[in-house]
TrEMBL record:
This is Cyclohex-1-ene-1-carbonyl-CoA dehydrogenase. Keywords: FAD, Flavoprotein, Oxidoreductase. It is an enzyme of class 1 (oxidoreductase). One of its GO terms (molecular function) is acyl-CoA dehydrogenase activity. InterPro entries: Acyl-CoA_DH_CS, Acyl-CoA_Oxase/DH_mid-dom, Acyl-CoA_Oxase/DH_mid-dom_sf, AcylCo_DH-like_C, AcylCo_DH/oxidase_C, AcylCoA_DH/ox_N, AcylCoA_DH/ox_N_sf, AcylCoA_DH/oxidase_NM_dom_sf. The lineage of its organism: Bacteria, Pseudomonadati, Bacteroidota, Cytophagia, Cytophagales. Belongs to the acyl-CoA dehydrogenase family. Its EC number is 1.3.8.10.
Length: 379
């Protein structure tokens, strides 16, 4: 067993860290306060190769492994989780799915531009009445011969307004249950496709979360992903990898908060000494460091299994379940270490605390991860 990162991994990590410090940190508080999507920063992420990290270089991707991806996700999430969720959706839910299951024509037309960040993508599974219970969705895709007619509403879609390409999951044949579900590539601008209202959120306020409406949207048959009826399996397979990305996002939020708390605890004095010298604070730092390390190892294990073509769904669910709890615990304690200063925006930890919560909700809530884990260990 080798815990050593390679030269390439260290280089990716350093590049992501520099980018986060130089390009994301300066405006992050304003973007959070005013709910501004980090458009320029996302463009630069594309130029630096962070938007299609694992995509085959034949389609302009980075050809990197999942370990590189989670190292970059961690560094970027330490500073700006709104930018990192955009990155995560594009990399692991949109690019990965197209790279693995798309046709040659779909890859040439869409993937090659998504992988460079020239355009960005969105993944549209959730609906107003169907989130965790994803098979009970109501959006329909009627087979009309050489095209499908899509009708319905999707909710909570990340990159909802900024995306150009949307992977939309819809029922073609309700009688067949999840085997009647298909996945489609829908382009922004297709007639009948409307971007709905933007959600005003507790955290990741820079990310654009929208509802989407589809009214008789004609989608050509060649835009279906995989065989007829493959859509639900496509969504699940894609989410398995996505969950590693969100686990890494949670890890980054936690380690970002920990680093700030560690630094502050060595600067702030109370009762004649640095607060880090009070055991009550030192023990908090010890707990944070230990939990973060455990979360990092779970993320790396899941990424390693994926890179080595082994089943990673259990490991990915465990990584997301645990890392998201660590993100919550660590950010709450980081605010505590900062005292009153932790409660104001300038010190960043209050934002990280608000951002942490979403990692327990999207890409499968913590309860859903426990379903995935328990089904796997009980089967
Ligand atoms: N990996 C691969 N396949 C899976 C799977 C997994 N983790 N989980 C289920 N499947 C497959 C099953 O094998 C089955 O396929 P077959 O019949 O071909 O064998 C099929 O999916 C149906 O499985 P179930 O009968 O177990 O389905 P279910 O209705 O009981 O639900 C569930 C299973 C795990 C709860 C699933 O509905 C689920 O994951 N829900 C959560 C949805 C979710 O994560 N949404 C995220 C939206 S995207 C997002 O959130 C992005 C963002 O924020 C940034
Ligand atoms: P529900 O499914 O209604 O769950 C409510 C509660 O009940 C939760 O605590 C849940 O864990 C619990 N619960 C449900 N079923 C069970 C069960 N069987 N056992 C135990 N507990 C259960 N979706 C997308 O498709 N694409 C996106 O890009 C996207 N981005 C998002 C961004 C944000 C900011 C948010 C808030 C959500 C996003 N989502 C996206 C949706 C997200 O995936 C769902 O919110 C999530 O899957 C939960 O679904 P729900 O909100 O309908 O909650």
């Amino acid at each position: 067993m080798n815990f050593q990162l390679t030269e390439e991994h260290l280089a990716v990590q350093a590049a992501a860290r520099d980018f986060a410090q130089n390009d994301l940190l300066p405006g992050v508080i304003e973007r959070d306060t005013k709910e501004i999507f980090p458009e320029e920063q996302v463009k630069k992420m594309g130029q630096l190769g962070f938007m299609g990290m694992m995509v085959d270089p034949k389609y302009n991707g980075g050809g990197m492994d999942t370990i590189s991806y989670i190292l970059a996700m961690e560094e970027i999430s330490k500073v700006d989780a709104s930018a990192s969720v955009c990155m995560s959706v594009n990399n692991s839910l949109v690019c990965w799915g197209l790279d693995k299951y798309g046709t040659e024509a779909q890859k040439e037309k869409y993937l090659s531009r998504l992988a460079t960040g020239e355009i960005i993508g969105a993944f549209c599974l959730s609906e107003p009445e169907a989130g965790s219970d994803a098979t009970s969705q109501r959006t329909t895709a009627e087979d009309k011969g050489d095209y499908y007619l899509i009708n319905g509403t999707k909710n909570w879609i990340t990159n909802g307004k900024s995306a150009s390409v949307y992977l939309v999951i819809a029922h073609t044949n309700k009688d067949k249950g999840h085997k009647g579900i298909n996945a489609f590539i829908v382009e922004r601008g297709m007639e009948g496709f409307v971007v709905g209202k933007k959600e005003e959120k507790m955290g990741i306020r820079g990310s654009d979360t929208h509802s989407l409406m589809f009214q008789d949207v004609k989608v050509p048959k060649e835009n279906r992903i995989g065989e007829d009826g493959f859509g639900f399996n496509f969504a699940m397979a894609t989410l398995n990898g996505g969950r590693i990305g969100i686990a890494a996002q949670a890890l980054g939020i936690a380690s970002g908060a920990y680093e700030l708390a560690l630094k502050y605890s060595k600067e702030r004095k109370a009762f004649g000494k640095e607060i880090s010298q009070h055991q009550g604070i030192a023990f908090k730092l010890a707990d944070m460091a230990t939990q973060i390390e455990a979360a990092r190892l779970l993320c790396l294990k899941a990424a390693w299994l994926k890179d080595n073509k082994q089943d990673f769904s259990l490991a990915g669910a465990m990584a997301k379940l645990y890392a998201s709890q660590v993100a919550m615990d660590t950010t709450v304690e980081a605010v505590q270490v900062h005292g009153g200063y932790g409660y104001v925006k300038e010190y960043h930890v209050e934002r990280l605390m608000r951002d942490a919560k979403i990692t327990q909700i999207y890409e499968g809530t913590s309860e859903i991860q426990k379903i995935v884990i328990s089904r796997s260990i009980l089967k």
